[in-house]
């Protein structure tokens, strides 16, 4: 009989769960992914935009080159009011490029999921679909995970990457309160929803005449009271997001029908998406579309026993700044760096319960500050675009459109945040790009070069 090995069960094959699978694979740590849906690669019409810091990690995972082939590069930023007035038009991203060596990119979320899945190669067999997790039993030596179909899986720990309505988070809460009913814990529904969002993808919205000489991708925002639009207008593909304030904030889970989506589009019909196209006209050309609530918040607890959370299950942001997955990817890096070390230091390669608790505490202590900054920035941006108060209104129309504001944001506010982004410290590789601002956490240089 073979000796027991340290094995991580990942709940959810979303972008965070599959990124964790890649990071664990590179750390030589065994894993199993349990995914509720029948397919991993599903198109819900959304894009993902990521900045250079995330691209460095994607490079370590061996995904960046292929991803760039299907990505658009952000070049300009424009803002409009609903009467079509352009209040901002700047080459916002050139500062980012100067500072980091690359601009940000956007791609179809489904293309990224496909890449994450396909690049697992033979380890695709470790991704099981149709596995809806319903319960977890935590013991001093491991975890037992139960699924709706009656199957049971044994492992050493569970990473709950099962999204905003996480079952793992609920099981963790139940366990913590069974252990000590007087203990204060996060609420059953810990996130608050103030806005909803309908998104759709279309072929490029640019006419052939406008395509020539235009930037690879322009990021548009349309501001209005309680409504706003964001559009990533690329040369080949375009992703549009319609945001609307709910009558009342709620912690309840809301779902939307086709009729709700029609009603939402109707309230935006004549809003401009770009200088050339209005909402209804674009929506009629959609390839895919979906609608969801925009939950916001961060849980106070990220682990209990042998269960630990990552991604949307423990922090959920408004998507305007595109920080949701990127923050989840930083969770994966922070957690896997610590797990890699703990496994390497354990005499038999199996960290004790105490060692794992220390890993989880240190991971949470390290990540909660940066995740909180991401939450605050994201909350601020959505409120700015829907003119949540007079301050947001003036800022959006009279201050932020200026080139000076771009300069301050991109050279003074964002670089100190960006340069603190983590990389996997056990994956050797070349830096994919370099700019004026140096990264604090460097990608380890290949040992072959060190010998030279
Ligand atoms: C409109 C929109 C645009 C966005 N744009 C960006 C962007 O540009 N950049 C960015 O960084 N972020 C963006 N985000 C946020 C980003 O999509 C999320 O942060 C990211 O998807 C979180 O990944 P995750 O893997 O944690 O969760 P999810 O993507 O929700 O994946 C969770 C997975 O767990 C599975 N699951 C759920 N329950 C169970 C269960 N009981 N058992 C087993 N499996 C289960 C689900 O089926 C799913 O596959 C956007 C979000 C929205 C809504």
From TrEMBL:
Molecular functions (GO terms): FAD binding; monooxygenase activity
One Pfam family per UniProt: FAD_binding_3
Gene3D superfamilies hit by this protein: FAD/NAD(P)-binding domain
Transmembrane in keyword set: no
The entry's keywords: FAD, Flavoprotein, Monooxygenase, Oxidoreductase
Cited PANTHER family: FAD-BINDING DOMAIN-CONTAINING PROTEIN-RELATED (PTHR47356:SF2), FAD-DEPENDENT MONOOXYGENASE ASQG-RELATED (PTHR47356)
Protein name listed in UniProt: FAD-binding domain-containing protein
């Amino acid at each position: 009989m073979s000796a027991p090995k340290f094995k991580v069960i990942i709940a959810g094959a979303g972008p965070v769960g599959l990124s964790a699978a890649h990071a664990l694979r590179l750390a030589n740590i065994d894993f199993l992914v349990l995914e509720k849906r029948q397919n991993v690669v599903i198109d819900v019409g959304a894009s993902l935009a990521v900045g250079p810091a995330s691209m460095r990690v994607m490079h370590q995972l061996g995904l960046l080159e292929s991803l760039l082939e299907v990505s658009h590069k952000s070049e300009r930023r424009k803002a409009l009011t609903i009467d079509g007035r352009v209040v901002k038009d700047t080459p916002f991203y050139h500062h980012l490029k100067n500072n980091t060596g690359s601009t940000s990119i956007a791609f179809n979320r489904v293309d990224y999921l496909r890449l994450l899945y396909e690049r697992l190669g033979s380890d695709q067999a470790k991704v099981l679909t149709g596995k809806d997790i319903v319960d977890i039993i935590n013991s001093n030596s491991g975890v037992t995970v139960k699924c709706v179909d009656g199957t049971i899986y044994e492992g050493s720990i569970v990473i709950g990457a099962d999204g905003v309505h996480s079952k793992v988070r609920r099981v963790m809460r139940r366990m913590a309160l069974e252990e000590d009913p007087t203990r204060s814990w996060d609420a059953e529904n810990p996130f608050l929803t103030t806005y909803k969002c309908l998104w759709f993808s279309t072929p490029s919205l640019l006419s052939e005449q406008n395509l020539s000489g235009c930037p690879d991708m322009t990021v548009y925002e349309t501001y209005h009271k309680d409504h706003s639009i964001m559009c990533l207008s690329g040369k080949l593909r375009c992703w549009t997001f319609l945001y609307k304030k709910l009558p009342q904030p709620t912690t309840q889970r809301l779902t939307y029908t086709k009729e709700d989506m029609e009603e939402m589009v109707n309230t935006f019909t004549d809003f401009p998406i770009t200088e050339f196209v209005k909402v209804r006209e674009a929506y009629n050309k959609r390839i895919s579309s979906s609608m969801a609530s925009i939950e916001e918040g961060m849980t106070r607890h990220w682990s209990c026993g042998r269960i630990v959370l990552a991604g949307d299950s423990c922090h959920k942001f408004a998507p305007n700044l595109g920080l949701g997955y990127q923050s989840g990817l930083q969770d994966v890096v922070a957690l896997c760096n610590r797990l890699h070390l703990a496994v390497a230091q354990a005499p038999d390669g199996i960290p004790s319960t105490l060692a794992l608790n220390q890993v989880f505490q240190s991971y949470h202590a390290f990540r909660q500050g940066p995740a909180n900054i991401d939450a605050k920035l994201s909350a601020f941006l959505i409120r700015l675009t829907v003119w949540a108060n007079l301050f947001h209104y003036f800022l959006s129309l009279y201050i932020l459109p200026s080139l000076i504001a771009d300069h301050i944001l991109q050279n003074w506010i964002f670089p100190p945040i960006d340069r603190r982004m983590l990389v996997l410290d056990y994956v050797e590789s070349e830096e994919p790009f370099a700019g004026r601002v140096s990264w604090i956490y460097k990608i380890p240089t290949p040992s072959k070069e060190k010998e030279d």
